[in-house]
Amino acid sequence: MLASIDFSAPAHEVARLLIGVTLLIDGVGGRIVETEAYDQTDPASHTYAGQTARNVSMFGPPGHAYVYRSYGLHWCFNTVCREAGHGAGVLLRAIEPTHGIETMRARRGLQELKLLCAGPGRLAQALGIDSRLNGQSLSEPPFELLAREAGEIEVLTGPRIGISKAVDVPWRFGLRGSRFLSRGFAAEPGTQQR
DNA sequence: ATGTCGATTTGCT
DNA sequence: GCAAATCGACATT
After folding, report:
1. What class of enzyme is it (predicted)?
2. Half-sphere exposure of residue A42, counting CA atoms within 13 Å on the CB side?
3. CA atom of A165 to C1′ atom of C2, Å
4. Predicted local distance difference test score (pLDDT) of residue A192
5. What percent of chain A lies above the pLDDT cut of 70?
6. C5 C1' – A80 CA distance, angstroms?
7. Best CATH choice for the domain A11-175 from the list 3.10.300.10, 3.40.50.970, 3.20.80.10, 3.40.50.720
8. Domains of chain A, residue spans
């Protein structure tokens, strides 16, 4: 069943809606368990200072991909939010591997399931994400978004990771109880730290 | 279990 | 020139 996400909503709402949704690229991927929201009013966002060659797709239509290179070597994957021109998006930080696990293991050169997609760079490597996908629509191949199963899920929130500005904005979201998070949430003792 | 360091693109917010 | 929405290797406790 296809997921119907309203990507024109504010980034922090979309970030919450995406938890539990299954993302596949060429049939490979899994259930989204961790996201972070960024928007143009946010000093930690790539779009804070306006449009540049790197971030153009974040100013494009919602429901498309923004892919950028992090620290010069990792790819990171975002979904663009709000109406075109707002420069808002959601960073996918962790996925629970469910589809094409052997493909992901091969791409990552790694056996351990827990670390296959636990982190934005790892997730991008496992799903084969690179700049070719930048600006592409998420409602067309190779992308597939499947609605989460019926029933309640609990979403945790906390401060975002790896930034030095707006560190107190609680725009990191995670699926409670998942062992596939990139890190635990402070509010939830008992969840792993790594 | 925790620390530090290197790889290397992008924009200077 | 330098910091960055990161990760893995290697060192030390």
Report:
1. hydrolase
2. 26
3. 16
4. 57
5. 96
6. 14
7. 3.10.300.10
8. 11-175
